Amino acid sequence: MNVYAREKKKRGGLLIHRYNIDTLVIMPVNPETFFIYWEITKKRMNGYRSLPNRKRYIITRIIDEQKNIPIHSFKIQEMVGSRYVRLKSDAQRIYAEIGLIRNEKFEPLIRSRTIVTFNVSHPGREIWMKKFRNKMVYIDPPLKGKTGAMRKIYEHYKYISSGYPGSSF
Amino acid sequence: MEGRGEKTRTKITGYWIPVLHAHIPFVKHPGYDFFLEENWLFEALSESYIPLIKKLKEMDDEKIEFRLTISLSPSLMEMLADGYLMDKFTDFLEKRIELSKKEQKRLRKDRIFYEIACFYRQYYEEIRSFFENELGGDIIGEFNRFFKKNRMEIITSTATHGLLPLLETNPESVKAQIEIGIKTFVKYFKKRPAGLWIPECAYYSGLDRILREYDIEYTFLDSHSIMNRQSPPRYGVYAPVYTENGVAVFGRDPFSSKLVWSAQEGYPGDHEYREFYRDIGFEREIDYIRPYINPDGARTFTGLKYYRITGNTERKLPYRRERAMMKVHEHALDFYSGLKGEIRRLSDMMERPPSLVSLYDAELFGHWWFEGVEFLTKVLRMMHDGAIIKTITPSEYLNLYPENQVISPLPGSWGENGYYETWLNPETDWIYREIHYMAQTMARLVKRHRRIRNNLKKRILNQMLRELLLVQSSDWAFLISTDSARNYSIARLKEHIDNFYFLASLIDGKVSDTERLEEIEGKNSIFSDIDFRVFSE
């Protein structure tokens, strides 16, 4: 079943609009899954007329923006399509690009916006803030009064939230 | 024994922040005497919002102190202020009263079921009387009265409940959802909201910067967005945290959530409570029930339900109101005692009074869990009478404790599994391609026509933005994913997409059909004072 038929079935008879605009979008689903959809226009592919069976050489890559390295890639056949990608990575900012492999080199065609993943960096030390005259100002963390309290609160939370929908524990 | 009036308290050692999120997607179908999906609003009004207001008003008259935070979604505010829908609501109540009278007659020889029919007649007559005579049909006005008396803190949400992490592809969409959410709040409450409910608690990194731009002081997230494994905050979810941009975030307390939400352990599943799905709309002879269901004969809920949950059996026993009320008292006491226990344990570990933040859909109380309003108000009464724990609003808590730790919340939602798959999955992913392209088109047209003077074109662009906002509602994807109102949701999506491109063709001057424009404006009349220029980065 081609992508149109599959999509048509999924959406109860509605057709995907072909907008004739080069599009590549990557969206987060959960920490290990991303959804990508794209449209490659005829105009864009016309530049590669000389390449026989050019559709065979199109791939989508996902790039770790900070390290500037591809962390995932897959071949695509459809000019309008979508795919769910399972991705285990510690990358914090990623983008996708579609391109052609020619002479063992990747030639980019379309690039998506960068998105922030579920891997968020955290400050290594405690930072505190307070509202002062309608402005937020940084302050020193208050003194820790109760020994081991932080660990106890964390343990308590873990115990209470076990099996809780949405809990990551 | 529950006491009354003000009294001296012992030292407060912790706080409870109950938050109800009230939202119904914008559904309006002029020209139909009966339209099934409009009942979503009418059922929420007659079973949740009005009973809740009625109970809280009684408490207020008795000088019972309470604090409740209510998030009203802008689409709900717009429907509550829509004369056409409110007129239809009174017709809806008339029908329910008429059916319960008919049931009283039919059941006059059956003592047990006759009593239940009498209960429904009295229930709906009281709702009608309260709505018409006490509230004058003005629900928002009554919420505002509680707001002004500091009994309630009312906050807003995004314009049409757009799931922001999935709209982020077009930053204009996120900003328009937030800005129109705030403007709608100001329209009805004449002041800016301190807080904003992020639909489905769906957060992405960077959203706090936009919230700060709009002077939003606080929001709520599910606990796993706060309790990251690497560096959980000092007080966990038991005190608010700030994001780097200074927005306070209150994390959801898992203990009080589980007691109510959990399918296994939650109170609403108790055998004494009313069974939601056994409704006479599906059980009476078709000729008898026809005037109260879909005119085409499709059976639907009528609100008259005669059985209690009973257990995991098809042989349900009759609903006994007095037994259900006894169970409410038992559950309220259990909840209150549980919260006090949590506060005691936590206050031993913390240098300040802990706060337990309970986030619930408002419609859970009354509509889904019929006895829920009685439960909630009973807990509030117990808090008033007791010591140790007191209700508070987020703004009051932040005034008392303005110093808080700074963290970077994790992306997530309060949906199943904690992320976005309820709204983005193989059944629904096609929606986002349409939404994103519509947003691109809108942004392009706004840029081109920013200084336009032609009133007709302004109207067209304003209506285009309404159609875009309506298509962005997270409800359609949710209803498709859960297979609850699948066909209606797909039809609504298709309608707004078609309307949008039809209107775009009017802007381009390819078509001139003002009659259809007027028809669309009349039907999808949300945000009457919208200005399309809001859609910009």
Task: Provide an overview of this structure.
- The complex is a heterodimer of chains A (169) and B (537).
- Chain A is built from three helices and ten strands; from the N terminus they run αββαββββββββα.
- Chain A has helices spanning 3-10, 42-46, 149-161, and strands spanning 23-30, 33-39, 58-64, 69-75, 80-86, 93-102, 105-111, 115-116, 128-132, 135-139.
- Chain B is 47% helix and 9% strand.
- Chain B contains 18 helices and ten strands.
- Chain B is globular and about 70 Å long.
- The relative contact order of chain B is 0.15.
- The chains are: A alpha+beta (169), B alpha/beta (537).
**Mean pLDDT across all amino acids of chain A:** 81
Q: What share of residues of chain B is helical?
A: 40-55%
Distance between the termini of chain A: 39 Å
* Shape descriptor of chain B: globular
Which whole number gives the mean pLDDT of chain B? 94
Task: Round the Cα radius of gyration of chain B to an integer and report it.
Answer: 24 Å
Q: pLDDT under 50 segments of chain A (min length 5)?
A: 1-8, 165-169
> Residue share in helices of chain A?
10-25%
